[in-house]
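Slide 14.
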Amino acid sequence: MAWRPHEQLIEGELDNTVPGKVTGWIRFVGMKEVVKLDLVGNFHRDIRGTKVRLTGCARDNKEARQFLEGFSPIQTGEVGDMTAGLPPQDYVAYPYFEWYSEANGRVVLELDPEQVEIIGAPIPACESDPVSREKQQQNMAAFLGEMAQELGLPPERTICIGAATVSKPLLEGTARKRPHRMQLLTKAIRSKLPPLGSQDGKGGQAVAHVKFFTPDSSWTW
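Slide 15: predicted structure.
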C-alpha cells in the first residue's frame, strides 16, 4: 500500500533547479522532525527546473500521529510523477507529487492547485523530453514486486508488468531490512469498529467506519 500523507501536510518546498535531482523538505502533522528529501529524477515539464512551495491546513491529533508512525525523516530514492497539473499536462491535470522511497516504498501527495506555489520559471517544454512512462512503469513494478516478496508470495504467482525481473524470491537465510509500510488498521481505528455482525440487516443505514482504496484505480472497499 502506498503512503498518502497529503492530509497531514503542513508545508514544504521541493527543488528541481539541479537537473536530475529533487531535494527539499516537508513538515507533516504527526512528525516532530522535518522530513528531508534527496531524490533522483525530475519534475514533469510543466514545472521542471523550478522550486515549488506546498501548503496544507492539517491539524495535529492522535490519529494523525499514528498514521505517520514509522515514516522516515530522511527520504531517499527515485522521483515518480511530480507535476502541478499545468500545460502541457504530461500526466494529470492537478498537483501530484510521487516518489519511491528506499525507507517507506511509494509516497503520493495529491493536492489542490491553491496548495502549490511555483517559484521561478520552468524550462520551456519544447526544450526537454517528457518523463519516461516506461521508467515510471518499472518504478511501480519494482515497488509491487518488493511488496510481493515481503508478503511471501511465491514468484510463480507474482506478475509485475513492465519489469519482469523485479519479483525474485528472497534468498533463503538472507537477512533483509523490510521497509515500513502504512498500517491499514491502527489501534485508533480498531477501537472504533463495532462487533462483527452487529450491522447485519441494516442495509443503507449501516455505517462504514473505514475506506480502503488502491491509489492507481477505482477499486474501493
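Speaker note: The first strand starts at residue 9 and ends at 15.
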